[in-house]
Design goal:
This protein has 23 helices and 10 strands. The radius of gyration is 30 Å and the shape is globular. The chain has helices spanning 2-24, 29-33, 80-99, 135-154, 162-171, 183-196, 201-223, 250-253, 256-269, 275-287, 291-299, 306-309, 336-351, 379-387, 394-404, 424-433, 438-446, 455-467, 473-483, 499-509, 514-525, 528-537, 540-554; strands at residues 43-51, 54-58, 108-120, 123-133, 228-232, 238-242, 310-312, 316-321, 326-331, 359-363. The chain is an alpha+beta fold. Helix 5 runs parallel beside helix 7 and helix 9 packs antiparallel against helix 10.
Length: 558
């Protein structure tokens, strides 16, 4: 047993030394902490992970508890007691010895934690080996935080730097820095950061993402573990089970408004695939007894004035809930004015930040659908198809579509092969109806995420059948082909037998990368061999154009 203790200790000691030595080789430590006064040091966590014959030390837990576990079942293992009493104290001493001379350098943050998980005869042993706080660094950092908030946020009038928000957002929720969390004050700082940066949408999104990551990490690692046991599901989602006897007193639940704040940020600003976490946070808050969470689930987050989320008159009734991203519309009188008011209601909400992925729950006597195969027969689809019957609503439908189109977002009531970006139904319908909306179609196609939706394939086929290949439609058709998946089939070969139309088509592919040209040709001709066979049989200008297409596509292999 002593031999095994020595072996484990030696292996893990070597891993610890390697971790410190590797980071000491960095030449940018001083430069890194000088970027902002809100960073006291670079490293604050060391995670030891031991399996027989595979010692590891890293900055974070790589989550490899089940990694190839069968390899280690027959290896000799220490029991929990020997690991805890004979190995861990020696490893702690090694970490302490390496840490002490570095504590005041830029390499080490104001705090440093060393944790370990060790494979033993009884399973996985999780231990905290060392928790260190540098009091001088901590006080200096707190002074810098308050100075920054006063100068750059409270009195500030200019956009702030994303790097500063990266650190500040986390510091405000760090129990070592702020043991008594002031939720209202913390939320005010987050709101101020967003207000100062609202003139720069891309930067604002980056600031907001850092705020949200900080809140999510606080919720999952600090706040919720007080009340819940956590486990990962088969799909790697976190599942929460309320602890028996969890103290749900008023003081413990005081920070729940921050959990709700994070939930609203997720629901309003995160991509569709991430919104389930926001709903989970809301449901947890409800389970913990939050009356506000109950109201939010029933009526919405409260982020919108009542006048914006409710409309009721003789023509229609509309109700919106941003928590579930739903807009319920009841058409009392089937006429243009009713759909005009509904479109104005929806577009206004989108302009105010309502989730673009919202689904429509429609009550209407009319059941129209677009003449495009493969689209979901949903209420959302039906609403826009109904509205498209009124020519006078076309400008409003375009305004809605431009407000709704957003890459990586999808209607909440579509999935799988029927997945489609917000604005799809309005764009498709307008694009089939009138050439005035060709620029809208091009804008839509430029934002399509072809990895996660394929309805553009069916639209492109319908567009080609409706408009053919003309001087006006050719650029739009090219934009559609560019956004199509490899399963698309577009029947324009017969038209492209005409040299004039083939010339128009070729013009749209000039200057594009070869792989993209090949991708755009495939829905029309299939494999390049078929196009090559046609080129061999062709004559004159048509032969020249077909060979030019083949040459352009061949650049894919260059």
């Amino acid at each position: 047993m002593n031999t095994l203790v020595e072996l484990v200790t030696e292996e893990m000691t070597a891993a610890i030394h390697a971790w410190f030595d590797e980071r000491l080789q960095r030449t940018d430590l001083e430069q890194s902490v000088r970027r902002t006064t809100l960073q006291a040091g670079i490293f604050n966590d060391l995670m030891l992970d031991y399996k027989p014959g595979r010692p590891m030390a890293d900055d974070l837990d790589l989550g490899l508890d089940n990694d190839d576990a069968s390899r280690f079942r027959t290896a000799a293992r220490l029991d929990d007691a020997h690991m805890r009493d004979a190995v861990v104290p020696r490893l702690t001493a090694v970490v302490q010895a390496r840490l002490t001379p570095l504590a005041d350098t830029p390499m080490i943050d104001y705090r440093f934690t060393c944790r370990g998980k060790f494979q033993t005869a009884q399973g996985k042993l999780h231990l905290t080996l060392l928790e260190y706080v540098n009091g001088d660094k901590r006080e200096a950092l707190l002074d810098n935080i308050h100075a920054y908030i006063g100068q750059k946020l409270t009195q500030g009038k200019h956009p702030t730097k994303p790097l500063e928000t990266f650190f500040l957002a986390r510091h405000l929720l760090d129990p070592q820095l702020f043991p008594q969390l002031d939720v209202a004050w913390t939320i005010a700082q987050y709101d101020r950061i967003q207000a100062l940066n609202k003139s720069r949408p891309d930067a604002l999104a980056e600031h907001r993402a850092d705020i949200l990551r900080a809140i999510t990490q606080w919720a999952e690692n600090v706040y919720l573990p007080q009340f819940y046991d956590r486990a990962l599901s088969a799909y790697r989602a976190t599942e929460y089970t309320l602890k028996a006897g969890a103290a749900l007193d008023k003081q413990a639940l005081a920070p729940i408004d921050l959990l709700l704040y994070g939930a609203v940020l997720i629901l309003r600003h995160e991509p569709s695939y991430a919104k389930s976490k926001g709903l989970k946070f809301l449901d947890i808050a409800r389970e913990l007894g939050s009356e506000r969470a109950v109201r939010m689930l029933a009526e919405g987050s409260g982020s919108f004035p009542d006048a914006d989320i409710r409309l009721n008159n003789a023509l229609l009734e509309c109700r919106a809930n941003d928590v579930f991203a739903t807009i319920s519309i009841t058409i009392a009188r089937e006429e243009e004015a009713a759909y005009a008011q509904a479109l104005a209601f929806i577009t206004h909400l989108l302009d105010k930040g309502f989730p673009k992925s919202c689904q429509i729950k429609l009550k209407s006597r009319v059941k129209e659908y677009l003449p495009i195969k493969g689209l979901a027969k949903s209420d959302t689809h039906r609403f826009f198809a109904n509205a498209l019957a009124y020519a006078g609503l076309q400008p409003q439908l375009e305004a809605y579509a431009r407000a709704a189109i957003l890459q990586f977002e999808f209607y909440a009531d579509t999935e799988g092969e029927k997945n489609c970006m917000p604005g799809s139904y309005a764009t498709f319908g307008l694009g089939l109806l009138d050439a005035r909306y060709f620029p809208l179609v091009q804008h839509y196609m430029a934002n399509v995420d072809e990895e996660h939706q394929s309805v553009q394939d069916q639209f492109t086929a319908a567009f080609a059948e409706q408009h053919g290949v003309t001087r006006d439609s050719a650029p739009v058709l090219a934009a559609c082909l560019r956004a199509c998946t490899d399963n698309a089939k577009v029947k324009i070969q017969a038209e492209l037998d005409e040299v004039e139309k083939l010339e128009l088509f070729c013009q749209q592919l000039q200057g594009l990368d070869g792989y993209l040209v090949e991708h755009m040709l495939y829905p029309v001709w299939g494999k390049l061999e078929k196009l090559a066979a046609l080129a061999r049989k062709a004559q004159g200008r048509r032969k020249e154009l077909l060979l030019a297409l083949l040459e352009a596509a061949s650049r894919a292999d260059a």
